[in-house]
Predict the structure.
Amino acid sequence: MSKPLHIVMFHNRYQYVGGEDAAVESDVELLREYGHRVTLIEVHNDIIKTYAKFDKLKLFGETAWNFRVYRQMRSQFQKLKPDLVHVQNFFPLFSPSIHAAARSLKIPTVQHLHNFRLGCLNGYLFRNGKICEACVGKNPWRGIGYGCYRDSPIASIAVWAMITFNRWRRTWEQDVDAFITPSHFAAQKLKEMGIPSDRLYVNPNVINPQNVEVLPSLQSENPNFLFVGRLSAEKGIITLLQAWAELNMIDWQLKIIGDGSERPNLQRFIDQAGLKNVHFLGYLTSSQVAIAMHSATAILVPSQWYETFGRVVVEAFACRKPVLASDVGALSELITSEHNGFLIPCDRISEWTEKLHWCGINPEAMQILGKNAYQTYQELYSRSANYQQLMKIYDSVLHPSQ
């Protein structure tokens, strides 16, 4: 890239802070670090709580196509004159009309795909506690009857309309120059959903090493395991708690960082099982998470859905910590069992219990796995490698004929 670029980046934040938000922040930091100008335009779903009933009804239709956003962003683009528009998440407040606004001014656009929202109403390929591919490669009308979005058939209609309308309009073929997803697994699923394969690129999420590498690798006196992430059903924390209860090591600690809708159910299970060694730490900053990781025996990722990447895995690797993770989705791309962690069948509680016990009683072996994890991070997930790949993607849309 011969000159610094001006990139307008869009992101719609969800109610609970998650990996997508951290990925966006890291992308902005990375681009600015290399001298590019980034104008970040964000909205937060919390604003929906302030809407009057009429505004909520309008949003029902605007999720598919927001004409107001189209006009506003077209005007913004004319003033800002960006080289490129990079949309991290448009759902539900921006809508895909952002891409059309940029296209009308001949500004190239990139769409980041952090989940499976363009072919699945809840975005996770997960239903009733299990992986679900009922709508992959098909019109997702089945998700309306299942109430896949927010457990509501009515709310699900709005997402179905967004997917169906933009497929009919050919938004993804006409208005988007490139798609980015963080793993080969996610890319394959997205191709099956109809995302144009000739414009779909893989670039792993980048992390900020300043948040994770500055601390010495510490170890608490007794085994101390850590979960970091959104507290929702697909993240599998209930499976982890069941294994932890079966483990029954009262001097060991399990710490849970994050927040989400599942927390009351998790707390109920903890109370009923009498687990005194499980602690909710709530939402913490990146630096606070790093401190917790550095003192942990291992990081736990018991996901029950197809993770599109697994950002917490790379953060753990950068902290020289091995990871115990479910063998689903992109997690299998990140972890090599018995080298930098362990892959465990997502629904095998007894195997989770067994591996937790092994990790707790083999501290020297865990140190070796931690060193291997850090080597994996350095070789495959450095900031420079991520930046070079991102620039190749940007270059492909800025100079398509070259």
Q: What stands out?
A: Residues 6-206+383-398 form a domain with the Rossmann fold fold (CATH 3.40.50.2000). Residues 209 and 318 are 7 Å apart (CA to CA). The chain has a mean pLDDT of 94.
